[in-house]
Structure formats: structure tokens, C-alpha cells
Amino acid sequence: MNATQEKLKHQFAQALVAAFGDEYAGVDPILVTASNPKFGDYQANVALSLSKKLGKQPRQIAAAIADKLDVSEICEAPEIAGPGFINLKLKPTYLEVQLNAIQSDSRLGVPTAKTPQREIVDFSSPNIAKEMHVGHLRSTIIGDSIARILEFLGHDVLRLNHVGDWGTQFGMLIAYLREVSPEALTTANALNIGDLVSFYRQAKQRFDADEVFQETARQEVVRLQAGAEDTIHAWKLLCEQSRQEFQIIYDLLDIKVTERGESFYNPLLPGIVADLEASGLLVENQGAKCVFVEGFTNREGEPLPLIVQKTDGGYNYATTDLAALRYRIQQDEAKRIIYVTDAGQSNHFAQFFKVARKAGWIPDDVELVHVPFGLVLGEDGKRYRTRSTDAERLRDLLDKAVSRARADLEVRLKKEEREETEEFINKVAEVVGISAVKYADLSQNRTSNYIFSYDKMLDLKGNTAPYMLYAYARIQGISRKGDINFEELGENTKVLLEHETELALAKYLLQLDEVISTVEQDLMPNRLCEYLYELSKKFNQFYDKDHGVPILIAEEPLRTSRLVLCDLTARTLKLGLSLLGIQVLERM
Ligand code: ARG
What we know:
Layout (H helix, E strand, L loop, with lengths): L2 H18 L10 E3 L8 E3 L1 H9 L3 H11 L10 E3 L3 E4 L3 H12 L14 E5 L11 H19 L3 E6 L6 H13 L12 H17 L1 H16 L2 H25 L4 E2 L9 H10 L3 E4 L2 E4 L14 E4 L7 H14 L5 E7 L3 H13 L8 E7 L2 E2 L16 H22 L6 H21 L7 E2 L2 H4 L7 H17 L18 H10 L2 H11 L3 H18 L14 H22 L9
Parallel strand pairs: 5-6, 5-11, 6-7, 11-12, 13-14
Antiparallel strand pairs: 1-2, 2-4, 3-4, 8-9, 9-10
Helix pairs in contact: 1-3, 2-3, 4-17, 6-7, 6-8, 7-8, 10-11, 11-12, 13-14, 16-19, 16-20, 17-19, 17-20, 19-20
Bound molecules: arginine (ARG).
Arginine binds next to helix 11 and strand 11.
């Protein structure tokens, strides 16, 4: 709810009391945004909900409320419509005051959270010795945007990279490398990441086929867990090598995340099993230690256990997640823990959340949220891959986006007969390419699959990063053309709203706080994308040669007022895009 809605709600409470008595003070006015702007901006449906209780016609009730409703500062006189809706239309003078207020506010009217809290965003989280794939890319982009939004709202955000850096796969890999490339276990960067990944694959094949090797690998896991010096040294080298590779991607994407991998929680795993045992939840099933919770079954309909310790004594992904969860609550004092992974892991999260609840580890004031997302598909509608067997390397994918953006730019420069420096071209190509990838991902409802298409994401038209960046640059173009410094428009300039496109833009500009507070709750960054896209369209209508208003050639005081609207639109775009992890360009 935004500030205006809050004020209206308050007035409704008073009107309800005045019309029907004190017991009606807490009644919800059921205030919604009007579906058709022709009828106003808001609609209150409270009269319909009170009809039965009051034993009167809704229209009659609506009239009684409207009669007592004092909203003259905010709205035109309320109108009663249909079966008994109360329609409200915001007054231009009210909007003008609000706009003047946000003009001098660097947060553009978005308040910080009333109760800032510690929030953890667990995102990105690739696996050591494996390459990051497009699934990790989605997690990285979505997780970063969520973290940025929460940080902007003043929450104390811990961005955690729960990398897969522990487990039996290291036994396998180290055992294999001892045979084929021992120097990789003693010397830093002896292999490149591509070799490491293919050795990993070979190790896995060998493991699946060769029983003697399986035993060797197991011994290596035991050595790792026991902290044997040479094995630990080798493990550290492998982690460091992967880390460097991941960092290249994070730098390209301008993303910060703190690594706290699975290995961090390793010492806590026996305690998890022991505590589950003590609380009576643990069941032995063919030598494995399991917890059963209702609602999880396999395909045959049999109860599906959460295995916390395998027959061979090893621990699972879920055991580490239970340990991490408890640590994050007890040591990090998190109040909301957000996990950003593909929807394929939904069951895993639901199940270990439930186990943790049953064990009594989740205080009432702690919220656990899995933020699932769909698959990245190729234009053929199948899982996105460039080679038939392999997820495309992320770095190639990002590089390709940048070079495609560069090619598009060069074509455009030629057409417009523009000369630009190499530096300018590099910068624009990089920002456009990377933003296009991010925006294509964020603008989708994250729960659905999306089709990865360079052509679509780099299109200058439509709900794309280039379109948004262009809208911003176009406004900066107005300031250049008129030789105007937006920052110096001054605080005593009055905004005046006359034209319908001005009013529509103004109302939209005032909705940023509402959008952001919705995303804070439902963690759907696509809402912010939609808002920014709509905002640019509203701006284009306002600036349209035929249907909009003149700006630079308008008479004062309208000229300055319109420039303020330009400035506010540009600042809203810039702020909104920054919350998506997207940088703007003054010119492109
Ligand atoms: N490493 C995992 C994967 O690649 C993602 C980890 C997500 N976070 C978590 N706490 N389980 O699938």
C-alpha cells in the first residue's frame, strides 16, 4: 500500500464511524486500484461487504459513507457507481504536491522498511570442479536483484554463495587426478577449468564402471574428512581454481556474493544427526538414517524419506542444508532466509523445511522461502544448450551477448552516420549486452521457463533492456538539447499537471513505492520490470509529437514543470534498473 492509499484508508475509517458508529472503525474499506482509469483511480468496495450486516442496499450505504468522507484534499468528490462502488479520482493539485515532494527525495518517495531485519539470500551457488551453467546464471541474476531490493529497503542482507565444495565427488576427482594429472593436486592452476571439468566427467565415468576405483575414491573421501594434509591441500587448490573462474562471471555481471560453501557446515553435520536422533525423528532404513515427514512420496506412492546419513556414513546435500539453516538462524540471526534455485529443487526445500520445523528449529518469527525459477530453453523449446551434450559455458554466453550488442550498435551508428570512439563503443556494447541477458531473465515471471534468444533480448523495441536503456538516454538527450541541468531545476519549481498524458505519467511515477513493497513480499522482480516498461510507455505518450505535449518549446511555467517530469522519469528508470542490477547509459 502506498502513502496515498494509507491516507484514504484512514479517512474511510473515520467516515465509517461517523456514518455507522464506533464498531465500524476497523472495517476494511476494500480499496483497490480502479480497473478503468475512466472511472477514477481508486475504488472502494466496502458498501457491498456491509450490506448484509446493515440490512441496507449497498448504494444507500455507499452514499452514507461518501457523505461523511473527507478526502477533498486528495480527491475530487467521490462518485457512487454500479451496485455501490465508491469511485475516487485523484486531484491534480494533490498529485502536484506529491511530485514536488519526491523530486527533492533521492529515494523518490520509497520509504525504508519499518522494521529492518537480517535477511539471507542464498543464491548463485555453483559447484566446484563443475562449470556454472545457465541454471546458476538465473539464480545469480534473480538472487542479486532480490538482494539489491532488500538492501535498498534498508534490510541487513547477507548474500551467501552456498557453493558445492564438499562431498564424495571430491574423493572421486582427487583419486582420478592422482593417476592422470598429479601436478594438479600440488601446483596452483596447473589445469584450466575446462580440463578440470572434463577430468571430472572422466572420473565419474570411471567411478561408475570400476569397482576398484570406487574403493580408492572412497578412501580419498575418508582422507578428506579426516583432514589428511595432502588431500586437503589438493582440495583447496581445486576450489581456488573454480573460484577464480566463477569470479570472472561475477565481475562481468557486477555481482557481489560472499562464499560460504557446503564445507563450512561440515563440522556441524554429526550434531544434526544426533539432535534428530534425540528428538525421536530419526528412523533407520536399510542402514541409512532417515526422517519421514508427511506429504512426500515416491512415484509408487511410498513414503519418501529425507536421508541425513547414508549407509556408508556419508552425509547428504539435505544434511548440509539442515546444518546451514540452523546456523543461519542461531548464529546469523536471520529472520528471513531466501533460497534461489531452479524449481526442480522445490521438493528438496519443502522437505527439509518441514523436517527442521518438526525438529523445532524454526522460531515463529523466522520465515523460510524457496524462490523457484523455471528452465532456460533454446529457441527450439528444448533445454538451452549450444553443443548437443553440454550446457554452454556461461562466459561464452555473456561474451556472445556483448559481441551481438556491439554488432547491432555498429549497424546503427553507420545508419545514423555517427562517429564514436572505440571506448564509447566498448562501453555501450558491454552494458547493453550484459543488461540484455539480465533483463530477459528478470522480466519473465520467474516460475515459468523462458526462451533464451539473443535477437529478442537485444531488440530495441519491446520489454527489453535496450528499450529501457534507450528510454533513459532519450530523456538525457532532452537535457543535452536544451542545455539543461536536471539537478538544478530547483526545489521551488511547481509541477503543473494539465494534459492527460501528464496526469497519467504523474500517477505512474507515484507508484514506485507500491511496486517495490510488493516485490519485497513476493520476490518477483518481473513486477518491477513491468512497472518500468509501463513507465517508459507513459513517458513516450507524454513526449509524443502528436498526442503528447511540447517540452523544450513550451512556455514557462509549463516548460520547467515538464522538465521536472522528464527528470523524475529518468531518475525512476535509473533507480529501478539499478535494483535489477542494470547500469544506465547517458548516451547510446
Ligand atoms: N549447489 C546447488 C546446485 O548447483 C545449489 C545450492 C542451493 N542452495 C542451497 N542451500 N541448497 O544445485
